[in-house]
UniProtKB/TrEMBL annotation:
Keyword Hydrolase included in the entry's annotation: yes
PANTHER family per the UniProt record, alphabetical: ALPHA-AMYLASE FAMILY MEMBER, NEUTRAL AND BASIC AMINO ACID TRANSPORT PROTEIN RBAT
Any single GO BP term: oligosaccharide catabolic process
Pfam family, one: AMPK1_CBM
Lineage of the species this protein comes from: Bacteria, Pseudomonadati, Pseudomonadota, Betaproteobacteria, Burkholderiales
Origin species: Duganella violaceipulchra
The keyword Ligase is annotated on this UniProt entry: no
Protein name: DUF3459 domain-containing protein
Amino acid sequence: MNIQFETSPEQLPQRCAQGIRFRYQGAPGLRSVALAGTFNCWAGDVCRFEQVAPGRWECLLPIAAGRHLYKFVVDDRHWIPDPANPWISEDGQNNSCLTVDEHGEVLMRQRGLDAGAAGPLYRRHQALASPAWLREAVIYQLSVPAFGGDFDGVRARLDYLEQLGVSVIWMMPIHPIGHQGRRGTLGDPYAVADFDAIDPALGDATALQALVDAIHARGMRVVFDWTLNRSSADHPWTAAHPDWYTRDADGQVYYAVPQREYFAGFDFSKRALRTELLAAMRRWVGRYGFDGLRLDDSDITPTDFLVEIRSALAALRPDIALISQSYDEFHHLHSCDLTYEGGTREMLRRVACGQADASAFAQYWKESTYSFPRGALRMRWLEDKEQPRASKVLGTGTHRAAAALLLTMDGVPHILMGQEFDEPSWRDWTVLFNRYRLDWSAFNPGMHSHYRALLALRRAHPALRQDATAFIEELPPGVIGMRRGSGAGAIAVLANLSERPVTLAAAIGPVLYADGWDQAHGKLAAHGCVIRAC
């Protein structure tokens, strides 16, 4: 995410002839240090450090180009971020980050990036051109059984989604779920037991086609969630093609990520595996007309396979969109249209708590924007399936103010099912391991109307979907201000994340939407927002 502290460059990961060298300075008495990250599927017992001096450990590892997240595993049980690396991930899981460029050089995010002092990837590379429908999208992620029970139940709620103002429906996996190692009564929906089949509890092919057709009839798009780098542990391929899978030290098929014994990890060095997966993806897109795929755990999948996926699917649909579950700058060059951006929520939380100010938020935005290739499209979220509800993290009031900013920022906003009405029962995706439905009885009409109004505003004003972002300075503490666009269509957004009402300087231009705004006295309530034409 943002840079947490200053550090000594010699302690950071560095390029050498054989790869990237990592260093760890530990207390006397350590038995072992290992390196786990996206480059080795988070295996915590494979890449061992060597003790080169008392308390000093080193590890050398070849690493491909791209963004990589990692932790040190100390004494086989303590998973910690690199104490010397100030760059922490945007995923909310406290991982250390580094990026390796196409020349093998280590790029660490630097403080102070902006339009006049952009990072090397921004200067050197233009991002892949994404389809226009995705650039203007608002994405709504849902689980079919949790949201509507089955395909017909989701279809019955499409009027609700259309009226809310979302434009893309992202359906979480709908394949049959494996039984081996199953957790809960249903198991993890990402433990796919058959990549060509539909979970019969959700409906059949006719019902799925009717749902996709109904989504398209409303002018909306639908994205299919694809479990990319693994299958269930009892997928038929594990017996028919065991060579397609990764193996543990005993030669058994396994998945390297800890505590995921119900998965079996793919070995992408096998050409036949890639061919079969590509054919399966083409069958789904070709038959049902999906507009895109969301690629689960693409940060631990070889980038060259992502390029193959794009080529295969673009031949069927030139305007296909690929959403990468990663924070990888290099996914924007040849394969994916959209990567995750989760630092916005954390920075908003810090501003609300007084741990950061509006200038720190603006600086984070600049550093995350100008370290990526030019034009890179980011998916901004307040809620992600692996995280708790926004109101749990931020508080309900701050959630309202944060939503006003997220839904008027650049990039593509993402909404997790129920977020828009402050649904309370969701914890993370593990609730789906058992029979689970959103608690519609806890519907918060005030939060829902807030989201609906903000989405209507985004839809009505091109500046909120297309134009540049500039931050407004010299505002009261806890207030973040943005200006979107320029000229006659420009819009100003002001949101108060603090617990106190504030007085704002007089502004010219009609109010387009307000929440807690006293026009006569220029006062903005705690957690209020005002959006106006400039």
